[in-house]
Specification:
The protein has helices spanning 14-33, 37-46, 80-170, 183-223, 244-265, 273-302, and strands at residues 229-230, 311-312. With 316 residues, the protein is an all-alpha fold. It has a two-stranded antiparallel sheet with strand order 1-2. Helix 4 packs parallel to helix 6. Residues 102-144 form a coiled coil.
Length: 316
């Protein structure tokens, strides 16, 4: 006798079957569109090697079938070519991120090295300035010490000379021998003599230059003659001063005075009162003469009339 084991039977209504299929569809779509953080981490870990691994994919194949009983697609099925292209893109993205991280680290190292070198250079410059300051202070102190020693030696020599003179006056023979100057005293004396002689030569050159400028100014002032009458030249290319004779005289005098100013500016004052006073005096004289020339030119422009034949010019 054939015995059949009872099979479990569960009735599923069409409404329940439709609800189950829709739930599976939503789960598959959510798994494809929203991968978990663990899946993304596994993907980046798998991209660490040189080969592509398909075992730990972002989209693992679920156990649910790809199609339902009616032939409708329940989830996205990725082909091997699509998966390979996606993995290749992810590897390129990972390599670009890695290169960017290395580049930023290199820039930070370069900036730190540049800051360190700048700090070292600043410290060395500070030490060098301090060393120069100390050397200058020592040189000044040495010079002052030599000066005071020389003053004391001169005071002693003057006292000895007075004592010797008083001894001679009283008939005593207490003449003292003048000591020989040392090498440092000779160097200091020679340096001062050279400085004084150089200053004397510069002052002499400045005085001779000022004398020459004064003579030239007197010559220019005496040779300049204001034109008695001004005749306009209609064919002149200069619209501001269409006067042939007056224009030539004024321009020549003005250029000569400007050259004198250049020569006067080249003279060194040398912190000498007399040279400074003479320079200021000559500068005022030349500036006043230039102002007079400007006034004459302004008068020529203002009193020019196209119908006028001749006009008397003012005297400087």
């Amino acid at each position: 006798m054939l015995s059949v084991a009872p099979q479990p039977f569960s009735y599923e209504s069409p409404r329940e079957r439709y609800a189950r299929v829709m739930a599976q569809d939503r789960a598959a779509r959510q798994a494809v569109s929203h991968p978990s953080i663990a899946q993304v981490t596994e993907l980046f870990d798998s991209m660490g090697g040189s080969t592509i691994s398909y075992q730990q994919d972002v989209f693992p194949t679920p156990n649910a079938p790809a199609y339902d009983y009616r032939g409708r697609q329940l989830r996205f099925v990725e082909s091997d070519l699509q998966r390979e292209a996606r993995m290749r893109y992810l590897q390129k993205r990972h390599a670009a991120d890695h290169d960017l991280i290395l580049k930023q680290a290199k820039e930070r190292e370069d900036k730190a090295e540049a800051d360190r070198r700048a700090a070292i250079d600043a410290q060395q410059e500070k030490v060098e300035k301090q060393r120069k300051r100390i050397e200058e202070a020592r040189a000044k102190e040495r010079e002052l010490r030599l000066f005071y020693q020389q003053q004391q030696r001169q005071t002693q020599l003057s006292k000895q000379a007075k004592n010797s003179e008083s001894g001679k006056a009283t008939g005593s023979q207490g003449a003292t021998k003048v000591p020989e100057p040392t090498l440092e005293d000779q160097i200091v004396a020679a340096t001062r003599i050279q400085a004084f002689y150089r200053h004397f030569l510069r002052r002499k050159r400045s005085i001779s230059a000022l004398t020459s400028i004064r003579v030239s100014f007197d010559t220019i002032a005496s040779n300049f003659v204001s034109p008695p009458s001004i005749s306009p030249n209609s064919s002149s290319a200069i619209k501001e001063l269409p006067f042939t004779t007056a224009t030539v005289l004024i321009e020549d005098c003005e250029q000569s005075l400007l050259r004198l100013l250049s020569r006067l500016d080249a003279v060194e004052p040398l912190n000498d009162v007399s040279v400074s006073v003479v320079r200021k005096y000559l500068f005022r004289k030349i500036a006043a003469a230039l102002d007079d020339l400007d006034d004459l030119k302004d008068w020529i422009v203002v009193h020019h009339r196209p119908d006028a034949t001749s006009t008397a010019s003012p005297s400087l």
